[in-house]
Amino acid sequence: MQAKFSRKKITEAVTGYLFLSPWLFVFIVFSAFSLGYALYLSFTDYNLLKPPVWWGWEGYARVFDNDLFLTKALPNTFKYVLIVVPIQTAISLVLAFAMDQNLRFRKFFRTVFYLPSVTSSVVISLIFVWLFAPQGIFNQITSLTINWLDDPKYAFYVIMGMNIFTTSGTLMLIFLSGLQDISPAIYEAAQIDGADPIQIFFKVTIPMLRPVIFFVVTVGVIGCFQVFDQIFVMTKGGPLDSTTTLTYLIYKWAFRDTTIKMGQASALAVILTLIILVVTFVQRRVIEGSGSTTQ
Amino acid sequence: MSALTSNQPRNIRNERLLTIWGRLKTPFFYTLLVFWGLVCLSPLYFTLVYSLKPVANAYIPPIWWPTPFTFDNYRTVFESFDLFPRWLYNSAFIAVTVTILRVLFCAMAGYAFARIEFPLKNFLFTALLVSMMMPSVVTLIPKFLIIGPGFIKGGIDVGPFHIPTGFNLIDRLGGVILPTAIEAFGVFMMTQFYKSFPRELEEAAMMDGSGRWSAFFRVVLPVSQTQLITLALLTFQGEWNRFMEPLVILRSPENFTLPLGLQWFRGEYYTLYSVILAGSLFNTIPILILFFLFQRYFIRGIATSGSKEG
Known about the structure:
Largest sheet of chain A: 2 strands, antiparallel
Radius of gyration of chain A: 24 Å
Order of helices and strands of chain A: HEEHHHHHHHHHHH
Strand order of the largest sheet of chain B: 1-2
Number of helices of chain B: 14
Strand content of chain B: under 5%
CATH topology of the domain at 82-268 in chain B: MetI-like fold
CATH class of the largest domain in chain A: Mainly Alpha
Oligomer: heterodimer
CATH architecture of the domain at 82-268 in chain B: Orthogonal Bundle
Structural class of chain A: mainly alpha
Order of helices and strands of chain B: HHHHHEEHHHHHHHHH
Helix content of chain A: over 70%
Strand content of chain A: under 5%
CATH class of the domain at 82-268 in chain B: Mainly Alpha
CATH topology of the largest domain in chain A: MetI-like fold
Largest sheet of chain B: 2 strands, antiparallel
Number of domains of chain A: 2
Largest interface: A-B, 100 and 100 residues
Radius of gyration of chain B: 27 Å
CATH superfamily of the largest domain in chain A: MetI-like
CATH superfamily of the domain at 82-268 in chain B: MetI-like
Structural class of chain B: mainly alpha
Number of strands of chain B: 2
Distance between the termini of chain B: 43 Å
Shape of chain B: globular
């Protein structure tokens, strides 16, 4: 009996691993090993032609010594995150709040708002390149004559605006489902206590939404730190490196430069990962720390 | 009582503000919705209008209506430029293959995590959660090396055996498919689903003498249809639009996906912007059709992604 039981257990374990095998394969090869290998590469000099050569912290030192990193990619990326994340969170929250009112045509608006999110990043970027061309529709409508994407003063803001526009739909849906999860009993209780709509919004709705806000901001931060497609299509990091971000710089060093720098690019990828980890952690503390805990 | 009287002036002012707000609320929200709706629709609308105008008119008004009207750009997409159909096929092939594989594999892995007892389960589940949070850019370079030339170029020689360390799939569709055939978020989503799923059905099937596998394929998979469709749609949308990985893996124009191809086409023929607009609609419209048909599932998938983290 005992033997039979353990045999059953072994069969169960084998079945379990068989069910898991496709994931295990991809996880081991493309996540676990890849992460380890990225760490290893970050300590090497590697240009694809010769095998990687260990050179310790040299790659990191070169990253921190690099002008493009220090004066463009790093500040640009932070600027991008600090502008895009708050605006897209605010717009999507306000839109979700409007959608949560008892208005007509809600389903129609929901569909329309989600349209930019289903369009591919490349396609929407190509469309924006054309809309914001010197003779493009945007200048025609506004009677301006700005060369948006060739001017270091404006190019980055066009990309930011476009990304706020494309992600707000998805984030709005997340907020909307969060709003609809708040029990009507809580609103009724607040009303009986004499709270006005503005008090209800700030004292009830926002605190109840805190986990969802955390999720939306986290997704936004992680996504914005890795912005790439739009920059590749619209400006290739230019004009005058004004739109070069960290992810674009990693790509440039690893795949595009005349001398390929896979080691140095890996060092930057590790640095970017650490930045994302730290920022996510700090932001969690800020969102959880602000106001009283409600849940 | 005294508290009430001392608060009165403030309350009256608040009252007044509240009546104003009560009256303006609905028009305000409608204006907001209509404004944002127009913002969302306009790029697509202008794309459609200008894709129906001659190439020479790519920057010429009127902007609201396609005059002069022509189908030439669509003709170019399908007749004169034979790479377009090729890109469409590549995109469809990658997206469909990845969707089928991922739905199946995620369901299998999710079922294993939720139902089957095996050693190291908790450790592996933690590993899954960690890999979900890892930014994808950190593994971009190793992924490229493993799919292509190998992390040790030329492989390793062990005695008479030659062991390659890469899949040699650069510039092949398989190289895009392989690392995305399963993905952590899908596994997590299916695990959560199967955890809340009644055991009785599959147990009844297993009592009949059929093993785990047939119980899984005959009972569990069909019953999880809704969840699988949601995962399939989100996967298809993501893969159909994916750019960065195909960009580093696919090299020759005939192997490009549609987004890659459109971007490349712009570089080569930047004067033919109307053709790009027409071509871009072939990227947008299939997703739009899917979205309209299965809106419920899309919205469910996105909504659950938010509440699960919370």
